[in-house]
UniProtKB/TrEMBL annotation:
<dbReference type="Pfam" id="PF22020">
    <property type="entry name" value="RlmL_1st"/>
</dbReference>
<keyword id="KW-0489">Methyltransferase</keyword>
<dbReference type="GO" id="GO:0070043">
    <property type="term" value="F:rRNA (guanine-N7-)-methyltransferase activity"/>
</dbReference>
<feature type="domain" description="Ribosomal RNA large subunit methyltransferase K/L-like methyltransferase">
    <location>
        <begin position="152"/>
        <end position="333"/>
    </location>
</feature>
<feature type="domain" description="RlmL ferredoxin-like">
    <location>
        <begin position="3"/>
        <end position="57"/>
    </location>
</feature>
<dbReference type="InterPro" id="IPR029063">
    <property type="entry name" value="SAM-dependent_MTases_sf"/>
</dbReference>
<dbReference type="InterPro" id="IPR002052">
    <property type="entry name" value="DNA_methylase_N6_adenine_CS"/>
</dbReference>
<protein>
    <submittedName>
        <fullName>RNA methyltransferase</fullName>
    </submittedName>
</protein>
<dbReference type="GO" id="GO:0008990">
    <property type="term" value="F:rRNA (guanine-N2-)-methyltransferase activity"/>
</dbReference>
<dbReference type="InterPro" id="IPR000241">
    <property type="entry name" value="RlmKL-like_Mtase"/>
</dbReference>
<dbReference type="GO" id="GO:0003676">
    <property type="term" value="F:nucleic acid binding"/>
</dbReference>
<keyword id="KW-0808">Transferase</keyword>
<dbReference type="Pfam" id="PF01170">
    <property type="entry name" value="UPF0020"/>
</dbReference>
<dbReference type="InterPro" id="IPR054170">
    <property type="entry name" value="RlmL_1st"/>
</dbReference>
Length: 360
């Protein structure tokens, strides 16, 4: 069947590369996602192992419908007992595009009513059923993830403006990070980059500490799923984080501890103007400093970016720098020799990009 991986617009190509590298059969990259071809075990493995996917949808069926009555009839005819647990609640979400059925709310109601006839009532906490009507072709997909996959299951505490883990992982991929060099985030907040980096270094499955919606489906095989867990490896280098905010560092340490990463991460309270390389071997410095759009106006931040860039240029020979920011002016304020910026990525309405250098 087709399996659709949802990702933030702008990151599709990076996610497709991750999926290919992890042995999935990628058939298409389209705005907002990547399509794979696979079976249910591929759905389980995608949820468990892909760092960059926000959700994994399993395509159940596809049919043509010109009228709401046709839509309802076709949904009623699906063998729901084979798909959903008996009496399980569902939450239906419909979109219509260039179709005779143009009213998403009405489509949603009809699908919900067809499901109710099979004993599946509407509840926002239920299984997510996605209905896409495009040029009169209806596609029904089941959200197999449940909670968004950026929730790895280890973070109780997040600082202000956290970067989603799924995005952080794909930015690390864009920066060429494979877990075989040290990583340092000098404005680490709740520790997202060092934690993702350390997990990559130890080859931990991103989904190892959480549950997924598919585990409650009738076709789930827990033994087969257990056998999919990746063998861990020892990390050659650690991942480091610092931040001037003591609370952020306390959070990062607690988060890393919960994730089983305490031995491969180290965190320190330090203002960015005072940073020094955390180890002798050069690696990747990556940061998501504050940017105006989210925490304030960008002009007062020019000095922070300048201090960061100056520190990297004077004290980090051989390290590569990568900066996630929403404003080209801020990136330029670092004075770092950036290559052309990466794709524009939509992070909760703010357009961010990754700026990278070669080794300094
Ligand atoms: C956008 S947040 C980073 C979020 C982080 N990537 C995460 O996922 O939690 C920016 C961080 O920069 C830190 N920061 C701001 N100015 C700083 C400075 N001068 N020195 C060190 N850290 C600073 C803030 O405390 C904040 O935690």
């Amino acid at each position: 069947m087709d399996i659709f991986l949802i990702t933030a617009p702008g990151l599709e190509t990076l996610l497709a590369a991750e999926a290919r590298e992890k042995g999935f059969k990628v058939t298409q990259t389209s705005p907002g996602g990547v399509t794979l071809r696979g079976d249910w075990p591929a759905v389980w493995r995608a949820n468990l192992q892909l760092r960059g996917a926000t959700r994994v949808l399993a395509r159940l069926t596809s049919f043509r419908a010109l009228y709401l009555s046709q839509l309802e009839k076709n949904v009623r005819e699906v063998d729901w007992a084979a798909v959903l647990p008996r009496g399980a609640d569902v939450t239906v979400d419909a979109v219509c595009h260039k179709s005779k059925i143009y009213h998403a709310g009405a489509a949603q109601e009809r699908v919900a009513s067809a499901l109710a006839a099979h004993g599946h009532n509407a509840d926002p906490a239920g299984f997510g059923l996605r209905v896409r009507i495009e040029r009169d072709i209806v596609t029904l997909s089941l959200d197999t993830s449940g909670e968004s996959l950026h929730r790895r299951g280890h973070k109780e505490a997040v600082n202000k403006a956290p970067l989603r883990e799924t995005m952080a992982a794909l930015f690390l991929r864009d920066a060429g990070f494979k877990g075989k060099e040290p990583l340092f985030d000098p404005m680490c907040g709740s520790g997202t980059f060092p934690m993702e980096g350390a997990e990559i270094a130890r080859r931990f499955d991103p989904g190892r500490g959480r549950d997924f919606a598919f585990q409650s489906l009738p076709n789930f095989d827990p033994d087969a799923f257990e056998a999919m867990r990746s063998p861990e490896r020892a990390a050659a280098f650690s991942c480091y984080g610092s931040d001037r905010d003591q609370g952020a560092i306390a959070m990062s340490r607690a988060n890393a501890e919960r994730a089983g990463l305490a031995d491969v991460t180290a965190f320190e309270v330090k203002p960015v103007g005072e940073i020094t390389p955390p180890c002798d071997t050069p690696g990747l410095v990556i940061a998501n400093p504050p940017y105006g759009g989210r925490i304030g106006d960008s002009t007062p931040l020019l000095g922070l970016y300048a201090a960061f860039g100056a520190r990297l240029k004077s004290a980090f020979p051989g390290w590569r720098a990568a900066v996630v920011t929403a404003d080209a002016k801020l990136a330029q304020a670092t004075g770092l020799p950036f290559r052309p910026a990466g794709p524009v990525v939509n992070h909760g309405g703010i357009k961010i990009r990754l700026w990278q250098t070669d080794p300094l």
